[in-house]
From TrEMBL:
A single MF term (Gene Ontology): oligosaccharide binding
NCBIfam families noted in UniProt: GGGWT_bact
Disulfide bond in keyword set: yes
PANTHER family on file: INTELECTIN, INTELECTIN-1A-RELATED
Keywords linked to the UniProt accession: Calcium, Disulfide bond, Lectin, Metal-binding, Signal
Residues spanning the signal sequence: 1-16
One cellular component term from this protein's GO annotations in UniProt: extracellular space
Domain of life of the source: Eukaryota
Record-given protein name: Fibrinogen C-terminal domain-containing protein
Annotated Fibrinogen C-terminal domain residues: 53-103
Keyword Disulfide bond annotated: yes
Length: 334
C-alpha cells in the first residue's frame, strides 16, 4: 500500500512539473495533488488538513506542516529532506501546541542478546574495544525501521539528521502497541522547552558529533554531555523513580534528559531519558551507546545496556522494572 501511495505521489509530482523537475532537487517545493490518492486510504483520515484544500507543498517537518498548512490532528505524513528524499513520519500535533516529528525509536528486541542483531543504537557486532563507537547510528546517515513499527523495532528516519529543531519530546510506549494507541498507552511522556538543541546544531545528529558516543573518549562524571530540564505531559518524577532499580535511585535525579554519559569503565551511553545521571553506573538507566562495555563484557552491551543486570525485569538491586524494559523510547523533534 505504501509503495503504491509513493508511486502515485511521484506520478502526480512529475505530471505537474515535467519541465523543471531537475531544477527542483534540493529546493523542497513539490506541489502535489493528494486529494484522491489520500482519500483511498482510510488510515489517512486523520491526516487531512482542517478547513483547507488538499493541495500542499511537502515540508521538512511536522512543525512546518502545522505552521504553513494548519494541520492539527496527530497522524502520519510525507516529508522531504533538503536533498529531496521522501519519507513518512508520525506527527504529534496536539502535545503543547503540536508540531512534533517522530524521528527515532529505541526498541530492545532481545535484552539477552548482548550487542547482537537488533541492537542498532549500540552495536550489532558484539562488544569489542576495537570498535569503540559500535554501529555509529547516533552520528551517521543510516536509516532503518518504519513509522508504524516504532514500538516493535528500532526506527531512524531522515528527519533525525535533516530537521533543524529546538526541543525533543519522548514517549515510552509498551512494545507492540499499535500507532493509534501510542499516546494513550505511553507510560511516560515529556518534552523539553529550553530550546537546548539550538546550542548543539539543531538535532541529535549534530549533538553527537560534538559529543561522540564512543568507549574511552572520556570519563564519568567529568566528561558527561549536555542536559535539559523536561516538562511532563504524562508521568512524574515519582513515576521515573519507580521504573528503575532501587540501587540506581541514589545515582540520578529525575526531571531531565541527558546525552552521552560515561560509566565507571569509560563505556559511552547515548541518552539518559528522564534523568540527569550523577553516579557512574549509568548502564542500568541510560540507553544506546558505543560498541564496548568493559564490565563483564559483553553483558552490558546492547540498546538497553544493563537494564537486566540482576535479572530481566526483576526490579531488584540494579535491574529496571519490566514496565520500562519492555517499552520503546520514541524520540520527537520540534
Ligand atoms: C508551493 O510552493 C510554490 C513555490 O514556492 C508556491 O508558489 C505555491 O503557492 C505553494 N503552494 C502552497 C499550497 O503552499
Ligand atoms: C575484536 O575485534 C578484533 C579486530 O577485528 C578481532 O581480532 C577480535 O577477535 C575481536 N574480539 C572479539 C571478542 O570478538
Amino acid at each position: 500500500m505504501k509503495v503504491i501511495l509513493l508511486l502515485l505521489l511521484f506520478i502526480a509530482s512529475t505530471e505537474q512539473s515535467p519541465t523543471h523537475h531537475e531544477d527542483e532537487i534540493g529546493i523542497g517545493n513539490h506541489d502535489i495533488a493528494i486529494v484522491n490518492v489520500m482519500g483511498d486510504f482510510e488510515v489517512n483520515d486523520n491526516g487531512c488538513p482542517d478547513k483547507h484544500d488538499h493541495h500542499y507543498n511537502l515540508t521538512r517537518s511536522c512543525l512546518e506542516l502545522k505552521e504553513k498548512y494548519h494541520f492539527t490532528k496527530d497522524g502520519v505524513h510525507l516529508f522531504i529532506t533538503s536533498n529531496g528524499e521522501l519519507y513518512q513520519a508520525f506527527c504529534d500535533m496536539t502535545t503543547d501546541g503540536g508540531g512534533w516529528t517522530l524521528i527515532a525509536s529505541v526498541h530492545e528486541n532481545n535484552i539477552l542478546g548482548k550487542c547482537t542483531t537488533g541492537d542498532r543504537w549500540s552495536s550489532q557486532q558484539g562488544g569489542n574495544a576495537s570498535s569503540p563507537a559500535g554501529d555509529r547510528s547516533w552520528s551517521n546517515f543510516a536509516t532503518f525501521g518504519c513509522t508504524e513499527g516504532a514500538t516493535s523495532d528500532d526506527l531512524k528516519n531522515p528527519g533525525y539528521y535533516d530537521i533543524k529543531a529546538s526541543d525533543i519530546s519522548i514517549w515510552h510506549v509498551p512494545n507492540d502497541t499499535p500507532l493509534s494507541s501510542w499516546k494513550d498507552a505511553a507510560i511516560l511522556r515529556y518534552h523539553t522547552k529550553t530550546n537546548f538543541l539550538q546550542q548543539y546544531g539543531g538535532n541529535l545528529y549534530q549533538l553527537f558529533h560534538q559529543y561522540p558516543v564512543e568507549y574511552n573518549k572520556g570519563k564519568c562524571p567529568d566528561d558527561n554531555g549536555p542536559l535539559s530540564h523536561i516538562t511532563y505531559d504524562f508521568g512524574s518524577d515519582e513515576k521515573i523513580q519507580q521504573l528503575y532499580g532501587p540501587l540506581s535511585h541514589n545515582e540520578f535525579e529525575p526531571g531531565y534528559v541527558q546525552f552521552r554519559v560515561f560509566n565507571n569503565e569509560k563505556a559511552a551511553l547515548a541518552m539518559c531519558s528522564g534523568v540527569k545521571y550523577n553516579g557512574c553506573n549509568s548502564e542500568h538507566v541510560c540507553i544506546g551507546g558505543g560498541g564496548y562495555f568493559p564490565e563483564a563484557s559483553p553483558r552490558q552491551c546492547g540498546d538497553f545496556t544493563a537494564f537486566d543486570w540482576n535479572g530481566v525485569g526483576t526490579h531488584q538491586s540494579w535491574s529496571a522494572s519490566k514496565e520500562v524494559t519492555e517499552a520503546a523510547v520514541l524520540i520527537f523533534y520540534r
